């Protein structure tokens, strides 16, 4: 038995006032104390019916260890447990206690044995080994009976639950209640009655640690981390913020308001600068009542904060907390943090800083393991008629043919089946109409005249400035063929302009339509009412600012999303509202059509994104997981995935087929406001209020680049049609062009990097920056590449 002392050992004995002693199955615990003995009572009023004392030889942070149970046949040399007898009295209880003490002694768990003996006030001679259990002096017998009666007589009323793996940590559990046997496997904890969610969430803070010691605990850990080796210090420093928040909230919840205020003032300055906004919210929570309705607080409580730490650093931390018997901090680590341990070298400060900063820490490595079909769907075969190709005189008939393979080689819409593409029928996509085929032919013709961009051939930029918008411009979109531009405004209107000389016309009235010859070749022209022709159409219907706008690929429809909680679908034939989609309960910040039409996605203040189809009133999928507003949404070019950027400082990629989250990207230090996929579907670029543009490899789930240069929120991102250049527009009144080809070449995506997150981002933002274009005083709200690679930018002039 001595050999088992190295493993975690926990002994559970259930005592009942009537009947024989019952042995409960032992529970695998997470002890923090190394052989530490003690008694804890975690009931709210000290009367929860628990006396817990468990002994452990080093738990492993949430990893259950083998437990040793006291079976009905006691180990050799130990006092035997008596058989069931009809009259259960003090001698039986005493003999059970002696058996436990004898077992603890044999297992070399002296501290726990002494703690239990002190509690029962038994004399040393009583368990000297050879004496029969019955030969205990009367003083010892009375003491044992007193202990047992004290344990068993406790009221069985509900107590606050001990957090799993923490309540009985560091002590042998002797649990007894006056009412029937406790649930098996639950040692040292009492079932809690049904409570509202908020109370259940907060109840884990009902720890009765000494409030005056919190500052000392935190200072001790801080000193230990700051004095540790450089290689471990960077990793362990990640603990400061989550521990600070949870210790502060614990003090507030237990109504130690002055201690909480002092704790906050002393340590809030030590936290990383990118947590300042969260700390501002936290500083306003000074009373227990404030915590009940605070969303940020509940998020922090319900989602475990994820830290990625090497095994060496973790062992160092565990050893320190066990030596100091710092149970308060260990309990928080066990209960509220998820430590993702990896084997290998610890990460450097730069590597950690690149990945942290979100509301819930880093992403777990498992979150980015699932397979993603990032390839493009095979394009339908459409014959391009060559008869009108000689419009420009110098073009001979064969020229477009020669140019077409060039387009395929750069990874845009491919004719060959991409090995990383999803099956063609993975999700149902709409059939191509004749008008779609005509549009695709036009697109192919435009492609032959497309300018090949690069560092030596930068695009021209055409800027559309909205004048007299009085900061009321809240959304912009441009059609794929660059013929229409739409603006959403704070006065709840949507305005559509024609960018070409062709005016906007509505369809004629029904009475006039009946007179038209439906068989004529120009029927589509005849149905339009020339009297209604104008450059601008205004769409009324929303009852709040319009925050999102998106044209359908076929230019027949326009989506708009608003503060009024609805998404509206407008017809661009009649310029009227066809449907109002009601599903969000709060403002809808963004909406976007699928590249194939029919489907669209919306995201809002209710923290979820919803997938809709134009012919369904209800959403088809609800993508829930973000901890704050969903600010921006984007479809992947193959329409099988949706990316969402959130104020929780994470980007998530969702599978449209089943609604699962398949990627979580962390690294931004502020809310995310722009997203764009590369034309080949392999990469994602994201922009946020921190002014950085981050580049992600979707297949490997890794950050592969960081573009620094903007000094304010990045509102818009767009890749050129062939993916050679990334354009970014910002509130700092600039458009910047970046070399995307160079940014994505020679990527380090080996298995080790993927498994551990040891990313080494090159500091080459200045090399990748190809140009910066200032506006006078116009924040850049939207960017668009035309089919010939001209950049269109849009924003509202804001006088200083």
TrEMBL record:
Its main location: nucleus. Keywords: Nucleus, Repeat, Transcription, Transcription regulation, WD repeat. Residues 384-395 have a biased composition (Acidic residues). Signal peptide: none annotated. It comes from the Eukaryota. Residues 407-418 have a biased composition (Basic and acidic residues). One of its GO terms (biological process) is positive regulation of transcription initiation by RNA polymerase II. The keyword Disulfide bond does not apply. Residues 69-89, 165-179 have a biased composition (Low complexity). Residues 30-50 have a biased composition (Gly residues). Pfam families: TFIID_NTD2 (PF04494), WD40 (PF00400). Residues 1-90, 153-179, 384-438 are annotated as: Disordered. InterPro entries: LisH (IPR006594), TFIID_NTD2 (IPR007582), TFIID_NTD2_sf (IPR037264), WD40/YVTN_repeat-like_dom_sf (IPR015943), WD40_PAC1 (IPR020472), WD40_repeat_CS (IPR019775), WD40_repeat_dom_sf (IPR036322), WD40_rpt (IPR001680). Residues 209-337 form the TFIID subunit TAF5 NTD2 domain. PROSITE patterns: LISH, WD_REPEATS_1, WD_REPEATS_2, WD_REPEATS_REGION. The keyword Repeat applies. GO terms for cellular component: actin cytoskeleton; transcription factor TFIID complex; transcription factor TFTC complex. One of its GO terms (molecular function) is identical protein binding. It is found in: Nucleus. WD repeats lie at residues 466-507, 539-574, 581-612, 623-664, 665-698, 707-739. Homodimer. Component of the TFIID basal transcription factor complex, composed of TATA-box-binding protein TBP, and a number of TBP-associated factors (TAFs), including TAF1, TAF2, TAF3, TAF4, TAF5, TAF6, TAF7, TAF8, TAF9, TAF10, TAF11, TAF12 and TAF13. The TFIID complex structure can be divided into 3 modules TFIID-A, TFIID-B, and TFIID-C. TAF5 forms the TFIID-A module together with TAF3 and TBP, and in TFIID-B with TAF8. Component of the TFTC-HAT complex, at least composed of TAF5L, TAF6L, TADA3L, SUPT3H/SPT3, TAF2, TAF4, TAF5, GCN5L2/GCN5, TAF10 and TRRAP. The TFIID basal transcription factor complex plays a major role in the initiation of RNA polymerase II (Pol II)-dependent transcription. TFIID recognizes and binds promoters with or without a TATA box via its subunit TBP, a TATA-box-binding protein, and promotes assembly of the pre-initiation complex (PIC). The TFIID complex consists of TBP and TBP-associated factors (TAFs), including TAF1, TAF2, TAF3, TAF4, TAF5, TAF6, TAF7, TAF8, TAF9, TAF10, TAF11, TAF12 and TAF13. The TFIID complex structure can be divided into 3 modules TFIID-A, TFIID-B, and TFIID-C. Belongs to the WD repeat TAF5 family. PANTHER family: TRANSCRIPTION INITIATION FACTOR TFIID (PTHR19879), TRANSCRIPTION INITIATION FACTOR TFIID SUBUNIT 5 (PTHR19879:SF4). This is Transcription initiation factor TFIID subunit 5.
């Amino acid at each position: 038995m001595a050999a088992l002392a190295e493993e975690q050992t926990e002994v559970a004995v259930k005592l009942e006032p009537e009947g024989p002693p019952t042995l409960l199955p032992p529970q695998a615990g997470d002890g923090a104390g190394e052989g530490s003995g003690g008694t804890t009572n975690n009931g709210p009023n000290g009367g929860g019916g628990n006396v817990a004392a468990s002994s452990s030889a080093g738990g492993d942070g949430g990893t259950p260890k083998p437990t040793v149970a006291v079976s009905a046949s006691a180990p050799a040399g130990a006092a035997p447990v008596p058989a069931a007898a009809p009259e259960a009295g003090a001698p039986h209880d005493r003999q059970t206690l002696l058996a436990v003490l004898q077992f603890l002694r044999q297992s070399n768990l002296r501290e726990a044995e002494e703690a239990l003996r002190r509690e029962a006030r038994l004399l040393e001679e009583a368990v000297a080994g050879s004496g029969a259990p019955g030969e205990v002096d009367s003083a010892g017998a009375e003491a044992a009976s007193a202990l047992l009666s004290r344990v068993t007589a406790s009221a069985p009323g509900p107590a606050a639950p001990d957090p799993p793996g923490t309540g009985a940590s560091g002590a042998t559990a002797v649990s007894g209640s006056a009412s029937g046997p406790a649930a098996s496997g639950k040692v040292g904890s009492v079932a809690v009655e049904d409570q509202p969610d908020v109370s259940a969430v907060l109840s884990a803070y009902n720890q009765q640690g000494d409030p005056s010691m919190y500052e000392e605990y935190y200072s001790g850990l801080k000193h230990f981390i700051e004095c540790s080796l450089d290689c471990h210090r960077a990793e362990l420093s990640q603990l400061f913020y989550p521990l600070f928040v949870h210790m502060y909230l614990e003090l507030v919840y237990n109504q130690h308001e002055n201690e909480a205020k002092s704790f906050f003032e002393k340590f809030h300055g030590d936290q990383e600068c990118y947590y300042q906004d969260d700390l501002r919210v936290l500083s306003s929570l000074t009373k227990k009542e404030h915590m009940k309705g605070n969303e940020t607080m509940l998020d922090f409580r319900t989602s475990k904060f994820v830290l990625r730490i090497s095994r060496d650093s973790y062992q160092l931390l565990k050893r320190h907390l066990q030596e100091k018997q710092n149970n308060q901090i260990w309990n928080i680590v066990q209960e509220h943090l998820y430590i993702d341990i990896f084997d290998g070298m610890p990460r450097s400060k730069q590597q950690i800083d690149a990945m942290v900063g979100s509301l819930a820490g880093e992403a777990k490595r498992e979150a980015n393991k699932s397979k993603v079909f990032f390839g493009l769907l095979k394009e339908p075969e459409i014959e391009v008629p060559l008869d009108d190709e000689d419009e420009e005189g110098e073009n001979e008939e064969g020229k477009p043919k020669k140019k077409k393979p060039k387009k395929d080689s750069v990874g845009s819409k491919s004719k060959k089946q991409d090995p990383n593409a999803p099956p063609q029928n993975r999700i149902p996509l709409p059939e191509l109409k004749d008008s779609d085929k005509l549009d695709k032919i036009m697109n192919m013709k435009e492609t032959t005249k497309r300018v090949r961009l690069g560092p030596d051939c930068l695009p021209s930029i055409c800027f559309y400035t909205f004048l007299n918008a009085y900061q009321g411009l809240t959304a912009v979109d441009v059609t794929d063929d660059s013929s229409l531009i739409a603006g959403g405004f704070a006065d709840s209107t949507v305005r559509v302009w024609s960018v070409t000389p062709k005016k906007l016309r509505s369809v004629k009235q029904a009475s006039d339509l009946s007179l038209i010859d439906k068989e004529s070749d120009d029927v589509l022209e005849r149905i339009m009412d020339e009297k209604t022709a104008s450059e601008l159409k205004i769409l009324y219907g929303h009852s709040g600012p319009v925050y999102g706008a998106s044209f359908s690929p076929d230019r027949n429809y326009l989506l708009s999303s608003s503060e009024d909680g609805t998404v509206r679908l407008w017809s661009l034939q009649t310029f009227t509202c066809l449907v109002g989609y009601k599903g969000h309960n709060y403002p809808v910040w963004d909406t976007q059509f699928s590249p194939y039409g029919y489907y669209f996605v919306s995201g809002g203040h209710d923290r979820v994104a919803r997938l809709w189809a134009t012919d369904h009133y209800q959403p088809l999928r609800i993508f829930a997981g973000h901890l704050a507003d969903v600010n921006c949404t984007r479809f992947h070019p193959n329409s099988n995935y949706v990316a969402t950027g959130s104020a929780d400082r994470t980007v998530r990629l969702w599978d449209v087929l089943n609604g699962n989250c398949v990627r979580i990207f962390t690294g931004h230090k502020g809310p995310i406001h722009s997203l764009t996929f590369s034309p080949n579907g392999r990469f994602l670029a994201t922009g946020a209020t921190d002014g950085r543009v981050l580049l992600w490899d979707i297949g490997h789930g890794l950050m592969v680049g960081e573009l620094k240069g903007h000094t304010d929120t990045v509102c818009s991102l767009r890749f050129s049609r062939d993916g050679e250049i990334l354009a970014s527009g910002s509130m700092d009144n600039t458009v910047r062009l970046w070399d995307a080809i160079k940014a994505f070449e020679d990527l380090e995506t080996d298995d080790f990097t993927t498994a551990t997150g040891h990313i080494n981002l090159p500091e080459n933002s200045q090399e990748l920056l190809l140009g910066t274009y200032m506006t006078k005083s116009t924040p850049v709200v939207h960017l668009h590449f035309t089919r010939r690679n001209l950049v269109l930018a849009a924003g509202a002039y804001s006088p200083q």
